[in-house]
Amino acid sequence: MIARVRAGQPEAYAELVRAHTGIALRAAAALGAGPDAEDVVQQAFVKAYCALGRFRDGAAFRPWLLSIVANETRNTVRAAARRTTLAGREAALVGAEPVIPESADPAVATLETERRAALLAALEKLTEEHRLVVTYRYLLEMDERETAEALGWPRGTVKSRLNRALRRLRRLLPEGGAPA
């Protein structure tokens, strides 16, 4: 598909955008873009399009795009000199991908909502590197290789930072607060 985009086929680029917009929005929201997530993703797609000439043939597009999304999110957050609140992240993540089926038992739904809020609050307390590795690996469901590519870190660094981040999360989360 990248070759078709490079060849100037606009429908191929539209296909690429459609295929990756959901995960890009989740990434921007999870990394702190809050209500600016759509703008961040739009800007990231523009930058990705402009940089397609530097994209390595045979490389995975998703990690490459998500590294652009992460950088654009970081730039947006810094430029605005503000932090997204926990409520803003929760609303953005919930809007991007439903977590609890509508048919769920209300008691189960309440418990899941509380657990998710506790997890997001704990994530806020992690260092940026630890928050990034947990977000990419688990919230965005990227494998270890993709996480390493997206973050520009060696796989060993991903493993060690993820291990440290998970240990810290276990200490921060109340008993039974960790997702099952």
TrEMBL record:
Sections of the chain in a coiled coil: none
Domain (RNA polymerase sigma-70 region): residue spans on this chain: 21-83
Keyword Transcription: yes
Pfam families reported for this sequence: Sigma70_r2 (PF04542), Sigma70_r4_2 (PF08281)
Keywords from the named record: DNA-binding, Sigma factor, Transcription, Transcription regulation
Ranges for domain RNA polymerase sigma factor 70 region 4 type: 117-169
InterPro entries: RNA_pol_sigma-70-like, RNA_pol_sigma-70_dom, RNA_pol_sigma70_ECF_CS, RNA_pol_sigma70_r2, RNA_pol_sigma70_r4_t2, RNA_pol_sigma_r2, RNA_pol_sigma_r3/r4-like, WH-like_DNA-bd_sf
Record family assignment: Belongs to the sigma-70 factor family. ECF subfamily.
Name listed for the protein in its UniProt record: RNA polymerase sigma factor
Native organism: Streptomyces thermodiastaticus
Taxon lineage: Bacteria, Bacillati, Actinomycetota, Actinomycetes, Kitasatosporales
